[in-house]
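Protocol step 4 of 6.
Sequence for Type IV leader peptidase (Arthrobacter nitrophenolicus) entered exactly as in the expression construct, tag removed. Do not edit the line below.
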Amino acid sequence: MPAAFWLVLAACLYFAVMAVRLTVIDVRHHLLPNRIVFPSYAVAGILLLGAAIAGAAAPAGGNLSAALFAVPALRVVAGAAVLWLFYFVLRFAYPPGMGFGDVKLAGVLGMYLGYLGWGHLFAGTFLAFLLGGLWSVALLAARRGTLKSSIPFGPFMLAGTAAAMLLPA
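Step 5 output, structure tokens:
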């Protein structure tokens, strides 16, 4: 099996472990700890950039130019930057609506979704807000929350990303 497959598999396994840990912590404490989020940038970055480079170099037998394999690798970096910036703008526009932990997590999730493509980046972001909105409506309908209630958004970001990762290319 090609190296890119194993690198993507390792990245997905890491994502699953990270997502479970962060979901449990965020639900219990409304916190996305830096000790988990910051190392995730390095782990996801190394694995996904390695997969992007290995995946692009393998099919042509080494005849590819640097520009050809840079495109998926650039999407990993650009996906992180775009999603981080989007969440940062949301945080800046209405600070009580989103914690900075969500902004930091967005960069990591942007790497995963960027690796898959711009459509996945959009879908994962949309699904996060859709799932969070549906959960909020359910809390309101069940009278377990009010319009002023705060919900941990990290689990919805992670679920939206996971769902988008399962979408076909």
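Step 6, annotate. Residues 63-69 have pLDDT under 50 and may be disordered.
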